[in-house]
## 1
Amino acid sequence: MEYLFTFWTCFMLYKEYDRVAAMRLKFLASQDKRAEQFTVLVRNVPHESKRSITDSVENFFKKNHPDHYLCHQAVYNANKFAKLVRKRARLQNWLDYNQLKFERNPEKRPTKKKGFLGLWGEKVDSIDYYKQQLKELDRRLTMEREGILKNSKSIMPAAFVSFNSRCGAAVCAQTQQSKNPTLWLTNWAPEPRDVYWNNLSISFFSLSLRKLLISVAVFALVFFYMIPITFVQSLANLEGLEKVAPFLRPLIEWKIIKSFLQGFLPGLALKVFLLVLPAILMFMSKIEGHVALSVLERRTAAKYYYFMLVNVFLGSIVAGTAFQQLHAFLHQSATQIPRNIGVSIPMKATFFITYIMVDGWAGIAGEILRLKPLVIFHLKNMFLVKTERDMEKAMDPGSVDFPETLPSLQLYFLLGIVYAVVTPILLPFILVFFAFAHLVYRHQVINVYNQRYESAAAFWPHVHARIIASLVISQLLLMGLLSTKKAAKSTPFLVVLPLLTLAFHKYCKSRFEPAFRKYPVEEAMEKDLQNRSSESDANLKAYLADAYLHPIFRSFEEVELDEVKVDKKPPPNSSSPPLSELSSPSPTHHAKHHEEDEPSQVSQTSHNVQHYEVGQPGDLFHYEYEQSNHIYHYDVESHHQHESQYHHNGYHY
């Protein structure tokens, strides 16, 4: 029976892996033009004493990829600048709030106290105060921006290098660039929306050290996480609570309070710890140094799965905390571990049926009702929402929570596989859960959630590996269970089954996983030939010029308010090129092109001043772009306009 079940599962896995890989390649081939298809992320660029990082990147790729290199964008350490931008967005929001407040009641200007949290200090006019704060912060932002551009130490040993063909990018991303394998490391660049900019400034040596430390920390977290939970739950018990706080004894003796504490506090303590766990794991993944949001979520999902496997599955089967389990495993032979766990599996079937109904079924119902986001929205609406911008943020449905959702689904799949042969009565509960989960999550992905990035099914190899792990675990536990029964003689026939399953996994890994790690040169060349007539180098360069533009080159509003439509147009009768043709505030700092393709509109000593008007909610900003020696300076003058003007212009604020 176990053989039949395993062969059927592997057959379905093979078909699904084949279908997903084909869909991924079809999706990549169907896209007319995507920035990540032409761009490679280069890290650990060697430092040369007489040459900047930008010049080193340009010279290296012009020398080694002369026929395909198009341009590149340097990576700046702009983490401090990003903090100032977020601070400016908060001040701008307070200014908008006070302006709206004044418009509703023109007879009374809003005021605030300058002290801590506005609780004490000198009382000042709120609108004038925030305008002055914004003016000072704009000056600091301009100085910080210029400091980043002028300081060579701000340029990190990394760059986004773009090529004039998909084939050229594929060859660069999938080959070793230097005889020293630790230098000029190339990988496919993430989708622009998928880039996690904060980690691009981490050095190669630091990455290796961080991954080692985080691996140790994850192991400790998985096996020692139950210690604080057990401690808190011991306090939640009435006896422990009376010992810690004897003065509460008269209150605890009340019948209503006693029954409430006994039934509520232990579960609440566990739930609080589990709620903060995904945030802790995401923080640890960020410390590891991954440069893509999709990779961060995949690594966090893997860590959460390990935690669920040890503390929920094994922790529920084996009595005691995870630390006690680890201590017991270390002091017994490896052959005894499956046997000891296998004995406990049938006895825990009732517990897991209850767990599936309470956590699984109720979780699916809560997902379709979106109770948690509903409560959070009303709390934000009551205490935090002051402007329409706040309302939009509060109403944002967010995206699928992969780090928490995928491990939960994989845990239920593990339960189904383990109990399919041992206790089949659990299977109907699992089937009901997955049937409703399929309908609910399909609806949520299509109609509710926003898509933060497109990874083209990059999660599937990890899902496949978890299913294989579930199969192997179920086979080992079944062997342990049979060794304690009268069917002990049949146990040796199952020894070969885990080996066959791992061999199948290795075959699938070699057969299909390259499609998720690399882009076939054949596919790239075919796509290049199809689009050669429509994709000239000039059009492609204009398309890629700002694709991986670092936030320091964006206006302050574009960094934080991507969804606000900004209308940029030069004044009438202007002979200067529009802003869109400039492609970026400082192309020589972040994007280097071939010299023969370099626009000759601006010389090294030219000095042009362009004025643009940018309509923003609650303010009209006049940006003055001054170009001198390829450095742009920004002068911002804010003039408040009546709310109705922006309704007329298409801005609802």
## 2
Amino acid sequence: MLSDTRNVNWGVLDGGPWKEQSRYPCGDEACFGAFLSLITFAFDQWERGWMETLDDIDMVVGVELSDSMDDKKWERLMFDNSFRLSKLYFTVLQVLRIASSCIEESVSDLRLVQEKWSNAVQYETTDARNVTRELEEMVTSMEAKKQRLLSRVDKKVEELLGATSLREATKAMALNQYIYIFTIVTVVYTPVGFLAAFWALPFLNNPDDSGIVRTPSAFVSTFIAVPVATYAVCLILAAYSAKKRNSISLLFELQRFLWRRSYRRWQEGEEEDSDHEATRDVSASSLSDVSKAKNSASVPPV
């Protein structure tokens, strides 16, 4: 990006890259002044290139207002079974992380140039002071450019993290539904399987004197009572946990309500105190005016 010189006029007589910067290489520090001019031009191109890169990223992962009107497209953005969007978001997040490091590194390199110049200057000449001042201005300008770029990068990272969190939440919700169904099926068939294994024990199936294996008298009753008791206990525990969860949410709601009411009362008290102070100030000023009027009336004319 910085080596592209096709649209740059590098002539010295007509100003070259420093013509628009009001900085011409002259004096004892002419070489370093020309170097600063080229750095300024390069960093202008640097900022423009990063802005174009972030614009391209916005075009790739950006969402328009019309997308929210299309239900199919909106669901495709939220639910991705092929992990195509997840892979895209992960790639863009890594690119933004690398971009943030590169931006920081560029400004650090410019600060290093400033430090090396400060260490190299041995005599405080007018040209040296001008170069030092220009370096400070350049570092300040680069800090502002860096903040603009990093703020935009951070905003894009937050947007992508929010989209990734939404997709992970939807996948976790679907997984919870599968676990819920699996739990119900397990609860239904566990007592039946337990009883079948229990009544299949050899010592419970011994033949009688005639050699016939008879069905135990408690077989039918246990196959009815044990599953019903298991289902009843599961339903009671589920209802208790749901009630406890609702009570906890109600407790948090009550806490937030009390906090808001106390905060509102505190604000009203602050406003009343400010009104009382204003009333006292007005009363004090009126009393001082009255006393001044009395004093002026009591003074005899000369």
